[in-house]
Amino acid sequence: MRIARRDDWKTEQMPSASTNITVEKFYSQEEFDRITAGVIPEQMEDKWFIFYEAPWLYLHRSWTGFCIFKVRFQVLGESVKIVEVQVNRDPAEYSNTDNERDASMLKILLDSRAKRDVRNQMFGYIKGESSN
Fold first, then answer.
1. Which of 57, 59, 95, 124 lies at a 20 to 30 A Cα distance from 7?
2. Rounded to two decimals, what is the model's pTM?
């Protein structure tokens, strides 16, 4: 598996118009390794470019390169915990302003990378519900 690196795709910095949101999530070391391997888009339908530069995971929209999420992790024994999440709030780059919806989307993105089942989370997101 190829590990994604910053220079594999066009990226923009997280704008100063950003906010921190709370996302409480733990992953095993194996899941964390899958998450931090990142994603390099291979086709037009791939909407995210994701890469890791310790201690931050960067999630960029693939078409624009805009940084939407930055996630900082901390190792706690056998697990890895999300300790900080920054979200883009520049309306020229990202129109969502709902912190709960952003937390739900981020959980779906990370859980799918960790190879967790995200079907119920996706249904809830589509219906406008927050995920656990």
1. 95
2. 0.92
